[in-house]
Amino acid sequence: MASLIRTLYKYSRNSMTSSYRTISNTANHEQTILADRESSMKDDLPINFENNPFEKKKESCILCRYNIVPDYKNVRLLSQFQSSYTGRIYGRHITGLCKAKQEMVEREILKAQNCGFMPVYHKNPNYLRDPKLFDPDHPFRPHKY
Ligand SMILES: [Zn+2]
């Protein structure tokens, strides 16, 4: 009888300690889970960039880049936008200029031609060896027609 009581007591004590252990284990486990969740939430927070990292570089045409204002007296510059075979003013898809500068160049070329500074049907032969700003055979954009 006494031995039975002792075993019962031992059993109950074992079960109590084991149950206590399991409770403490789950508590620890929950704590670790919470800590993990907190850290992961911190990792998932959005990073604040000062500037937009996906911002595209602002493209500027060659005249805007060097801050050049075309002038009817600067015939050498204007001749670079003229075909050496026909004297035609190259279009914007070839020159790659922005609309404002292209219109300015065309206006100044007409002014220079009307003043007699620039030939109309060919390029001035003195400027034929000038460096090319663009390749008319490989335009920046395809022609719209
Ligand atoms: Zn421009």
TrEMBL record:
SUPFAM superfamilies: Ribosomal protein S18. This is Mitochondrial ribosomal protein S18C. GO terms for cellular component: mitochondrial small ribosomal subunit. It comes from Microctonus hyperodae. Belongs to the bacterial ribosomal protein bS18 family. One of its GO terms (biological process) is mitochondrial translation. Gene3D superfamilies: Ribosomal protein S18. It holds the Pfam family Ribosomal_S18. The lineage of its organism: Eukaryota, Metazoa, Ecdysozoa, Arthropoda, Hexapoda.
